[in-house]
Amino acid sequence: FDGLGIAYCDVVTYLPCYRNVLKEAARFGDKWSNRWAQEHSYAKILSELPDILEQHTICVNKAQFNNWQDYLKVFLAQGGIIEAYPPSDSVTSITVCLSIEPDGHHTIICSGDHLHAESQFSCWGLSFPQSSVEPHELNLYCSQIVEQCKQRNIYGYIDIDFVTFIDAKTDKQQVWIVDLSIGYSEHISLYRVMRFVTTGRFDPQTHSFTAKVKQAKRLRNWQGSAPEYNIVERNRYAVWSARLHHSNLSVLHYSVFFQMCRAHGVGFDIREKQGSVFTLLECDRHENIGMITIGDTLQNTLSNFAYNLNAINQEITTASMKGRSNFILAINDIENILGITQENASNESTANATS
């Protein structure tokens, strides 16, 4: 659940017979899919794998599993899944949230790119809407999964997780489907809070979100009447997370918290449909908080989200703090994303200038 039961091992780096197996596969060609062709390589892998797993497996949740043997014991007792990790150093995770009605009709509710703080296998938030894969391609995969769900009498809310990366061999984008979560998720909940405060609309065909805002008409100097407004549609982006935690929040009254936010200019502009809103959790989880930041571009929204976290973190973090917080980890992840987006934008500008 949420990456807590994941352990990984880089077999490409550590498995001694890996390259020989690749040569065997190339030698057999189309016949490699036959079991008899794989027997020798299969036996070799089985003989080498236990030592490799013992020495080089890394558990994501180190508080739960200290070593491979502890993990293996639970894995064999409860069962699990063995998956291939995408062969790339740059992997983007995506979630698409949808609902399947009793009549079989399905609706895509929202989509977003994962943001990571604790580990690359744990999603602490989304940038909405997703911008990593062509919407038509994602929608096609979702339709195929919906058909499989209906055959198994699965209806209601569903989250589908994808990963995408560039295949080094073909230099083309690959999309893998890696997870299916059944039930009403925090992403759907936060999206509906965002939709409520913006009165906006998500287009599932283009994976874009628009909100109607008032735009003042230009008045001549001699006109002294009240300004008139045009209603225009503008794209809006969001970054949200319900998993922000900071131990010192538990001793901070919400009235003081919001005064602090106002002092740093953290708020929501109803007319522009931009800014930040917070979701507050029950008293026994006071150290946790949710935040939704909405903006006119993805870069601005990410920057504002990081600014908010940094401002709150500086106000409530003390030198003697002994608790835990993921604020800095979240800020670092956003700054890495901003660096990548700026680099991509720079490369696109260079390419356009060259062409």
SSE blueprint:
Layout: E1 7-8, H1 11-14, H2 18-28, H3 35-56, E2 58-59, H4 68-78, E3 92-100, E4 106-116, E5 123-128, H5 135-151, E6 156-166, E7 173-182, H6 186-198, E8 201-203, E9 208-216, E10 229-235, E11 237-245, H7 254-263, E12 268-269, E13 274-280, E14 288-295, H8 298-316, H9 327-354
Antiparallel strand pairs: 1-2, 3-4, 3-6, 4-5, 5-11, 6-7, 8-9, 9-10, 11-14, 12-13, 13-14
Q: How would you explain this protein's 3D organization?
A:
This protein has 355 residues and is α+β, with helices and mostly antiparallel strands. 38% of the residues lie in helices and 27% in strands. The chain folds into three domains: 7-78, no CATH class; 91-184, ATP-grasp fold, B domain (D-amino Acid Aminotransferase, Chain A, domain 1, 2-Layer Sandwich), CATH 3.30.470; 188-214 and 229-343, no CATH class. Strand 12 and strand 13 (274-280) form a beta hairpin. The longest helix is centred in the C-terminal third of the chain and has 28 residues, at 327-354. It is globular, with a radius of gyration of 24 Å. The protein starts with 6 loop residues before the first strand and ends with a helix. Pfam families: ATP-grasp_IQCH. Residues 1-203 form the IQCH-like ATP-grasp domain. This is IQCH-like ATP-grasp domain-containing protein. It comes from Rotaria sordida.
